């Protein structure tokens, strides 16, 4: 009998009194291991429950005692704390009413908090975000998620320890105290709905000397109040707010960096308090600058609003009254931003506000928090948006309520049958995919929308494909262009665009399927706003999880973009994120389904054909934005993208190398945004999180790196020796020989040109006197130390040891044992070093993280070694948990530091390379650019499966002995791996 049938029979037998409850309990506890269908369990258990929703009847969520015996369930026995529960839910006369009152159902769905200081997280979202440590606690203690939340989870949360994604962000946050600074402009604080005393108190705390107060019920008095209190800037807050000490100085500091006509916003902390006796919790918001599109669709203003005084007084007309501060802020901003104006944001939380008295829609929130606005508030916000839409867009129906989020609206473009959408679909065979795509367009494009389809056949060879094309183009609105050339997404679409007659171009992958109705109308809706130039859509994988919903630019990291929502399938989590529920403005969107105004596409020159496969869509969107447009992504179309969930991320072979090149071109073309960060998202959000989670824990070093010197030796000085010191960092693990034979050869050759100081983080050398003697014979100085701080710890030690020599020669060179070489004589490299006029010279560069020189070989000349910051850098080398932190803080950080100090940097063998060019382009570097080295990790590990089959012949042509040494080393490594 299969597990489902066995469960059904057992359940019915138990209900009929034929078997004991123990058998059913065991099956529920082990249902996943046994293989019982969860939906079947929920369906059967639903017959026992009148007070819980069916989707909650999950053995992982709830105690077995509650699932099987709800009428006799005792919350106390399953960890529910009586006093905190009753203190929060004062309508309950007894803890035993928790279930029958419907309160537990609301708690589990995230509409109510379990306890007063615990956020109202849905139990499904709690499960999805629970971290490994807490998950192990549930398994070890054999408890359900409700039991964990009520006990262990609550305890850890109150101690501000990590519990679960989506819960940890609610830890209490202190408002900062900002040091006073000299104010060069006059700022006025406008306090809404407060007494004079309340306004003055807020002004004192925040640092304002000038303050006025005004009631939302009497806005007619505001213009006169403003005229009586002239200023350059005005900041608006609510009387119930709590301001950071010196908040004005943070705002003033931000405004010093910008021009006069600027709108400034800041982060905020929402305080949720059900009762007036201290019970409640806080929610730190991570906001970003307001934009014209976002004001129309979702607002999200939140914190303090600072405006130019003249703009507020001259450009704004106030309604006689407003129901809430959010409505006033929205009305003011929609008027001020009607004409182009700069917006900026202070990423400090400078205000705490009570959700009940000064409500605003949070960037992230569980069901109870999502809409703190009353029906009266919502009606007024709707009227304000509609009024401005009519005036701004010139159309009656420019906006409509967003069905996913109360208080938000959707741009709505009236039907215009004169508009034509040209749909471009590139493909090569895969006829069934393309057929499904085209058929879905015919079915779900929308009856009111006129479109044409331009098929782009990129060299199909299968008869079935050719036959389908012949049939497809018989329809009047379908044509096909054949391009027999290497796949280049950008070039294919640029060429096909010449055949398009439409006002709008819809770039579409052939593995796309329209599921919902009127998809083209949904994509056209955001074009109701005159700034919109491109529209993308939420795309789902076949399993329903999100494949794409917008692109964020990620500066200073290995990855250059992030796609929020990617792979999320839990509806509670998706619904908690405001940017995923609205027509949201993003910096870019995927061209798997991207609609663009044809004239704007042409104006920016179409796709960049040097971005053949990846990032061509991101580049296009960034250029469209640079030209003054906005990119919007809608959540309202249901579209499946059949891109495989298990598809790799171009991590191996030629695809990886191409990905490195194309991401480098993206970084290079858009230096400004990669230097400053994405203007539409907070830099305080984690660059790996697709859930808009903040960086809650900064990566910090373990301790200062110590020299840990075990032995020093220096050869007697040569007479008239003018060689530049070269500090060579060497390391060998306990499983390796103390020093490779090829290193000895390399050091001999280095000594002809440089004073070679070896710093060996290899204590085992002390136990190998022969190797130690040989090493001394090929260098001028030797330090043996314990390994701390990787190569940077060794370079630190060597620089200190050779400081007198460096001061004499006014130059120093740092290198390490990560290269095999030289493959050819070093004279070519030496000549390049001598001819360079740069202050800092490297062999290769890298755009990843930030533009920098790779550290395996760096020469610092007079200006660099005379710079105090150079030596301060080396005095502060730390030990870190991860090697990535070493790269970011030291390899990248050193280049950034020296550039900030006015140094010129040059790479001798690459220019604007991205990623690990020493792997991706190893053969071209050696053969085309006369690079004298090959990376050890390439031949030993080859993590990206680069084609290295002819490495031996390539190296042998320049250095036969080196080729043999490498071959012997690799064979030894292989033997050790096999033995282990």
TrEMBL record:
GO terms for molecular function: transferase activity. This is Possible glycosyltransferase. Keywords: Coiled coil. InterPro entries: Glyco_trans_2-like, Nucleotide-diphossugar_trans, RgpF. It holds the Pfam family Glycos_transf_2. It comes from Parasynechococcus marenigrum (strain WH8102). Residues 422-545 form the Glycosyltransferase 2-like domain. Residues 952-979 form a coiled coil. PANTHER family: RHAMNOSYLTRANSFERASE WBBL.
């Amino acid at each position: 009998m299969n597990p489902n049938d066995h469960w059904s029979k057992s359940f019915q037998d138990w209900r009929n009194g034929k078997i004991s409850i123990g058998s059913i309990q065991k099956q529920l506890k082990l249902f996943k291991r046994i293989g019982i269908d969860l939906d079947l369990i929920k369906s059967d258990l639903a017959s026992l429950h009148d007070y819980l929703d069916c989707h909650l009847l999950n053995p992982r969520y709830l105690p077995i005692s509650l699932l099987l015996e709800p009428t006799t369930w005792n919350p106390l026995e399953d960890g529910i704390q009586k006093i905190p529960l009753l203190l929060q839910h004062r309508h309950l006369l007894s803890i035993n009413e928790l279930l029958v009152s419907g309160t537990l159902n609301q708690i589990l769905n995230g509409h109510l908090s379990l306890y007063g200081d615990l956020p109202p997280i849905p139990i499904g979202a709690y499960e999805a975000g629970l971290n490994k440590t807490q998950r192990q606690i549930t398994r070890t203690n054999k408890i359900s998620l409700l039991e964990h939340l009520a006990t262990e989870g609550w305890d850890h949360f109150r101690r501000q320890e990590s519990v679960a994604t989506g819960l940890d962000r609610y830890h209490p946050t202190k408002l900062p105290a900002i040091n006073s600074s000299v104010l060069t402009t006059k700022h006025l604080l406008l306090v809404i709905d407060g007494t004079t005393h309340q306004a003055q108190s807020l002004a004192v705390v925040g640092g304002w000397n000038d303050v006025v107060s005004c009631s939302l019920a009497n806005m007619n008095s505001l213009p006169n109040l403003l005229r009586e209190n002239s200023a350059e800037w005005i900041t608006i807050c609510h009387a119930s707010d709590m301001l950071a000490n010196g908040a004005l100085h943070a705002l003033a500091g931000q405004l010093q960096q910008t021009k006069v006509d600027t709108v400034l916003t800041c982060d905020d902390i929402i305080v949720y308090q059900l009762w007036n006796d201290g019970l409640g919790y806080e929610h730190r918001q991570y906001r970003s600058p307001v934009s014209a599109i976002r004001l129309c669709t979702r607002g999200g203003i939140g914190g303090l609003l600072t405006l130019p005084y003249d703009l507020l007084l001259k450009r704004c007309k106030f309604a006689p009254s407003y129901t809430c501060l959010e409505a006033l802020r929205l009305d003011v901003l929609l008027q001020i931003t009607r004409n182009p104006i700069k917006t900026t944001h202070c990423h400090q939380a400078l205000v705490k506000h009570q959700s009940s008295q000064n409500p605003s829609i949070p960037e992230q929130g569980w069901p109870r928090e999502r809409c703190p606005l009353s029906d009266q508030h919502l009606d007024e916000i709707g009227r304000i948006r509609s009024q401005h839409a009519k005036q701004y867009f010139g159309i009656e129906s420019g906006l409509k309520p967003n069905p996913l989020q109360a208080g938000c609206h959707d741009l709505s473009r009236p039907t215009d049958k004169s508009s034509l959408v040209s749909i471009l679909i590139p493909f090569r065979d895969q006829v069934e995919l393309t057929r499904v795509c085209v058929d879905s367009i015919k079915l779900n494009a929308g009856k009111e929308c006129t479109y044409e389809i331009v098929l782009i056949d990129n060299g199909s060879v299968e008869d079935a494909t050719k036959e389908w094309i012949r049939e497809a183009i018989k329809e009047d609105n379908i044509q096909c262009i054949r391009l027999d050339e290497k796949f280049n997404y950008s070039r294919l679409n640029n060429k096909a665009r010449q055949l398009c007659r439409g006002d709008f171009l819809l770039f579409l992958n052939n593995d796309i399927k329209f599921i919902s109705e009127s998809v083209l109308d949904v994509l056209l809706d955001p074009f109701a706003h005159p700034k919109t130039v491109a529209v993308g859509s939420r795309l789902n994988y076949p399993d329903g999880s999100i494949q794409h919903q917008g692109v964020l630019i990620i500066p200073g990291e290995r990855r250059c973009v992030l796609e929020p929502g990617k792979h999320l399938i839990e509806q509670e989590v998706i619904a908690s994120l405001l940017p995923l529920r609205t027509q949201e403005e993003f910096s870019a969107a995927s061209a798997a389904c991207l609609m663009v105004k044809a004239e704007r596409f042409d104006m920016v020159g179409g796709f960049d054909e040097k971005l053949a496969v990846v990032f061509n869509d991101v580049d296009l969107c960034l250029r469209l934005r640079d030209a003054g447009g906005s990119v919007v992504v809608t959540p309202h179309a249901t579209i499946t993208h059949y891109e495989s969930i298990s598809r790799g991320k171009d991590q191996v072979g030629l695809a990886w190398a191409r990905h490195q090149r194309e991401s480098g071109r993206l970084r290079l073309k858009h230096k400004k945004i990669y230097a400053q960060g994405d203007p539409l998202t907070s830099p305080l959000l984690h660059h790996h999180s697709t859930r808009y989670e903040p960086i809650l824990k900064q990566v910090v070093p373990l301790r200062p790196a110590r020299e840990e010197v075990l032995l020093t030796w220096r050869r007697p000085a040569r007479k008239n020796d003018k060689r530049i010191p070269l500090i060579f960092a060497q390391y060998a693990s306990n499983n390796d020989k103390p020093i490779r034979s090829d290193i000895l050869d390399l050091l001999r050759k280095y000594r002809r040109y440089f004073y070679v100081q070896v710093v060996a983080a290899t204590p085992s050398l002390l136990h190998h006197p022969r190797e130690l003697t040989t090493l001394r014979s090929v260098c001028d100085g030797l330090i043996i130390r314990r390994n701390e701080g990787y190569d940077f710890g060794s370079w630190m030690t060597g620089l200190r040891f050779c400081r007198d020599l460096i001061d004499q020669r006014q130059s120093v060179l740092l290198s390490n044992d990560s290269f095999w070489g030289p493959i050819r004589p070093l004279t070519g490299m030496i000549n390049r070093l001598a001819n360079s006029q740069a202050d800092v010279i490297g062999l290769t560069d890298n755009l990843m993280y930030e533009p920098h020189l790779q550290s395996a070989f760096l020469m610092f000349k007079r200006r660099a070694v005379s710079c105090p910051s150079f030596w301060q850098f080396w005095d502060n080398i730390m030990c870190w948990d991860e090697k990535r932190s070493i790269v970011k803080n030291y390899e990248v950080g050193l280049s950034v530091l020296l550039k900030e100090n006015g140094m010129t940097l040059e790479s001798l063998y690459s220019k604007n390379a991205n990623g690990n060019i020493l792997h991706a382009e190893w053969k071209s570097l050696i053969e085309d650019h006369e690079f004298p080295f090959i990376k050890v990790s390439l031949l030993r590990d080859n993590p990206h499966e680069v084609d290295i089959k002819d490495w031996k012949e390539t190296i042998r042509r320049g250095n036969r002995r080196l080729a043999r040494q490498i071959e012997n080393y690799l064979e030894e490594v292989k033997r050790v791996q096999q033995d282990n």
